[in-house]
Amino acid sequence: MEQKKIKAALLGLGTVGGGVYKLIQRRKDEMEQIIGTQLEIVKIMVHNLDKKREGIALSLLTDNWQEIIEDEEIEIIIEVIGGIEPAKTMILEALHAGKHVVTANKDLIAQQGRELLNAAEESGADFLFEASVAGGIPIIRPLKQCLAANELTDVVGIVNGTTNYILTKMFEENVSFESALVKAKELGYAEADPTADIEGLDAGRKVAIMASIAFHTRVVFEDVHTEGITKITEKDVAYAKDLDCVIKLLGVAHDTKEGIEVGVYPMILKKEHPLASVRDSFNAVFVHGDAVDDAMFYGRGAGEFPTASAVVGDVIDVARDIQYECTGRISCTCYKDTPIKKFEEVKNKFFLRMQVKNQPGVLACIAQIFGNHKVSIVRVVQKYVEETQAELVIVTDKVKEGYMKNALKELEDLEDIYEVSSVIRAYL
């Protein structure tokens, strides 16, 4: 086979971009054996050419996109600048020019994935995005290839390291959410503005991508019901421990007869479940298929080199396809049009904590309201009692989200209930 040097351009030189460049340089001498030819990054697009970058030759740097897109020798574009624009325009221009694209851009894939995959298919180009979900954990390729023989029905995962770190600290060190968040920022797990992480938005984008691939139906970020962990308190943690459970922010996707269920929210999880033992900033994705049964993928979900590992793995895959002239093998796998179930129709178990008047008949009144809204009570706990106030914890059976929402609305109007302090779904 005729060998040639495959040339690539890197868009962005932040944490991930820097990791990608370093990792390719680290494996430089082995690339010919891994791919069958040499691989070289010949251009790196940056925003500020004057910024000093140790170990990067100035001749590699450019702030001119046209210099890259018009270079016919550059066959692979590696996009790690993030966000919607200008990333989307650059990727589309690259694909239309017949260049192959590797990206880590979860925001873009979760919202505009169909358009990008269609453009790749039209050009016969590779468009790979393993790093868009769960950092260094292989999950996109397994869903598309290794598990392709399965009818997948469940994809449930911890796909945000920041929130998992915070919840781990709350459970293991008995600290508040606020204190754990401060520590996460100090260690670099949380951004200065952590909203996307702690409100479940980051995980929601990743769940949309995984659900689309697993269930062969286009799921976008707007389809995903998202809630964060900001309302989880030390009392909730204590009750979860009493139930021999933990609390995790889970991305949940189910393929049911009535449609696809997708959501991100905190869930009380039995300690026996494999996801319960996933600590610190680690991620994990639990998958169920009709042939493979249960499988779990575990590892570092973010960071310079874990994410770079996924990006460079995709680059190597594209380079092999170029070398063997078989690019564009796997494009969009969303060949179904399964409806997305309305969230009000999704069924969940619930953990409820409320402050009520300490007097006879209150629990009976609550039970009557729940009964009227088809909510079945499984367990009641009353631990903290004062002269005029008591704290009730109620665990329910599975109930439609819409029924629970209506029941809670009616409860909040009751004079005998001071406050519904916590509403947490339960994966029991």
Automatic annotation (TrEMBL):
SUPFAM superfamilies in the record: ACT-like (SSF55021), Glyceraldehyde-3-phosphate dehydrogenase-like, C-terminal domain (SSF55347), NAD(P)-binding Rossmann-fold domains (SSF51735)
Residues noted as binding NADP(+) in the record, renumbered to the chain: L11, G12, L13, G14, T15, V16, G17, G18
Cofactor: a metal cation
InterPro entries according to UniProt: ACT-like_dom_sf (IPR045865), ACT_dom (IPR002912), Asp/hSer_DH_NAD-bd (IPR005106), HDH (IPR016204), HDH_cat (IPR001342), HDH_CS (IPR019811), NAD(P)-bd_dom_sf (IPR036291)
Residues annotated to bind L-homoserine: E191
Pathway assigned in UniProt: Amino-acid biosynthesis; L-threonine biosynthesis; L-threonine from L-aspartate: step 3/5; Amino-acid biosynthesis; L-methionine biosynthesis via de novo pathway; L-homoserine from L-aspartate: step 3/3
Name the UniProt record assigns to this protein: Homoserine dehydrogenase
Source organism of this protein record: Mediterraneibacter hominis
